[in-house]
Amino acid sequence: MGASDGVVWFSASYGRINTVVVLSETEKTVTVLHAGEKKARRQAKRSEFSNYFPTFEEAKSFLIEVAERNVASIRLQLERANGALGNAKGLRDPTLIAARETK
Predict the structure, then answer these.
(1) Which of 21, 27, 69, 79 has its CA 20 to 30 A from that of 93?
(2) From the CA atom positions of the chain, what is the Rg in Å?
(3) Is the CB of residue 27 less than 8 Å from the CB of residue 48?
(4) Is residue 97 part of a domain?
């Protein structure tokens, strides 16, 4: 099987886009021939590891959306961490507070 037996698609994962040859497609899977491999494999179009798209723009949009969600999540974590830091810095020794109140 050569590249002429299929259609070029794009595999997006971990911030990268690679070209693959898709030999067949169903609603949820593609049969893919990766560069340098001789045997085709059936892959889910969407998975945790890799996602397959018929156009480069779709693959790029997918990676941008994933990266934007990651940035938003990390910003929220940073806000929470800064709040915890502020709370920790604002802590006062309760024994000193109680000693002042009894005077």
Answers:
(1) 79
(2) 26
(3) no
(4) no
Residue 96 placed within a domain: no
Integer CA distances (angstroms), 45 to 13, 26, 38, 53, in order: 12, 9, 20, 8
Q: Which two tokens mark 99?
A: 């000693």
Q: What is the value of pTM for the model shown? A: 0.75
Domain assignment present for 37: yes
Task: Write down the pLDDT at residue 41.
Answer: 93
Pairing between β-strand 51-53 and β-strand 16-25 as defined by DSSP bridges? unpaired
pLDDT in tens, 15-64: 999 999 999 999 999 999 887 888 999 999 999 889 999 999 999 999 99
> What is the spatial distance between Cα 11 and Cα 50, in angstroms, rounded to a whole number?
6
- Domain count for the chain: 1
19 belongs to a structural domain: yes
Residue 11 belongs to domain spanning: 3-89
CA–CA gap between residue 57 and residue 3 (Å, rounded): 21
